[in-house]
Amino acid sequence: MDSQGAAEGIPRRGFLAAALAGVATVVLASCTAEPAPTPTPTRTPTPSPTPTPTPTPLPPGIPEPTAFRRTRWSADPYARGAFSFDQVGTTPELRETLATPVDDRIWFAGEACSTDAPGTVQGAFESGARAASEIMRVAQRGERIAIVGAGVAGLAAARALSRSSRDLEVVVVEARDRVGGRIHSVDDGAFERTIELGSPFVDRDGALDGLLDDAGVETTPVAPPTEARVAPTHEWVGVQSTGDEALAVASTWAHEAPYDTSLASALAQTGADALSTEPQADGVSPADWLEWSLRTSIVPATAAEPERLSAKRLDLGRIQRGRQLARTPLAGLVDELAASADIALSNVVRRIARVGDRVSLRFETGESLRVDRVVVTAPLGVLKTDTIEFEPRLPRAHQRAISVLGMGAVDLVWLRFDEAFWRSDAPADGDLPRDVLTVVGPVEAPPVVADPSDGAGDEASDDATGDAPDADEPAPALDRLVNAWIDVGLADDEPVLVGIVAGERAGRLEALSDDESLAAVLEDLRPFLPAESPVEPPPLEDSPQGEPPVH
């Protein structure tokens, strides 16, 4: 069924239902066939027992959380990442090109189309509003406009178009069974609060500021950290400017260079990364501070590693400024934007074709819908795949923009504990609380706990260290998985942390099982254990031969 237009007399909110109705009927009709012959019974093979997987043990000495939840945005077929970044070779014109309409029939909108605030809710909102403004300049009265995607960009476009005096018929089609895109507020009883599975940050700039107020969204400023935790000593040290100064040298050089290069290359070519690895009095070397700046600031803000990030397009001022953390659900913003929109959920668009002076949307169900114009707000990560086919193909300039712009990865890890052990040595009265927790310096090796099945308790194993490693076997590389921690429960005195995992670390996290990822991120909290209470391995208890001890 190809819907040509709203039937006369059907109300505005009813035309979409009519346009997309009949899916089940079509599917059921197509499944009607002659009865199949009864097959000859075959012997059912005896199934082999499936071995029960061994749970990944949690790291010793670290409190066990009462709740745990993580995201996997790069694995989400309707996201394929977190947000766009300026890959090597990116220019401002690429984002402008992506936002340029195709024959005044197809528009793109979203954070990737924003030149002022890419990668942000603000950028997505302004891009959607911009597309709507351009459509209103060319659309005729009564035209039907489709918007693909019910994230902030799509809802902003729908809101503006539906308020137009041209009496436009606006419909939003969304692949997911919810609205909001990467804004995903979830009421989780285990956390005793609403948690944000998308970005918990939002910028209160421009028109979005007033909209946040209307939606009742409260935010609190989060400033860059002034202290960092030294892993081996479990002590706080003041953040040194060494890393930021090296980044400034590389950035200045790259902006003046006649060609683009990666941030990692710019650091190397300027010699800004040639810093001493000798620890200073506080146990941290100058090289450690550069690594800290990259890991805790650059990578989370851009969702990309220095090897992929354009040095010429790097905006250190924007990256290093403070952010606004949502204290109340960002779903309020989504609800405000979606209040008057016609939205069809669970409708996956697979093909967008220009047919004469109209546009046809083909859905995964096989049905189609014809409209006069369309705003595509699918994330850049989705546009990089063949999820949506365009017919005819997009202009080369649009294809190049989609190809060159990078799609980054940022995931969140939410943890709730019985107590906020990381606040045990809070700053003195009058000092600002630490809402951002970061670690600097060498990675702390976890304590080794003997496995009783390896002979712990025997005379040969009195040191309780287990078998000695093979001298010819290299020690496993130690690395942190979490770029930075946000103490989101600080304002309400709740023991809740959010870990930000960005860049290639996000890919590593997504490859782990839930048990493995929990163990890995908990180990990253070891430096925040109280300094005055050294962690001792848990005592071994008697247990049957071959059985693990029970704690």
What's the layout of helices and strands?
Layout: E1 2-3, H1 12-20, H2 23-30, E2 67-70, E3 84-85, H3 92-98, E4 106-108, H4 121-138, E5 144-148, H5 152-162, E6 169-173, E7 185-188, E8 193-196, H6 206-214, E9 219-222, E10 227-230, E11 235-238, H7 242-256, H8 263-270, H9 286-302, H10 316-320, E12 323-326, H11 331-338, E13 343-344, E14 349-355, E15 358-363, E16 368-371, E17 373-376, H12 380-383, E18 389-391, H13 396-404, E19 406-407, E20 410-416, E21 436-437, E22 439-440, E23 484-486, E24 496-502, H14 504-510, H15 514-523
Parallel strand pairs: 1-16, 4-17, 5-6, 5-17, 6-13, 10-22, 14-18
Antiparallel strand pairs: 2-20, 3-19, 7-8, 9-12, 10-11, 14-15, 15-16, 20-24, 21-23, 23-24
Helix pairs in contact: 3-13, 4-5, 7-8, 7-9
Share of helix, binned: 25-40%
CATH class of the largest domain: Alpha Beta
- What is the 3D shape? globular
* Measured distance between first and last alpha carbons: 63 Å
The CATH architecture of the largest domain is Alpha-Beta Complex
Strand order of the largest sheet: 1-16-15-14-18
Total E-strand runs: 24
What fraction strand?
A: 15-25%
Number of domains: 2
Number of helices: 15
Class from helix and strand fractions: alpha/beta
Which whole number gives the mean pLDDT? Answer: 85
CATH topology of the largest domain: Polyamine Oxidase, Chain A, domain 2
Instruction: Report the sheet with the most strands, covering strand number, pairing sense and barrel closure.
Output: 5 strands, mixed
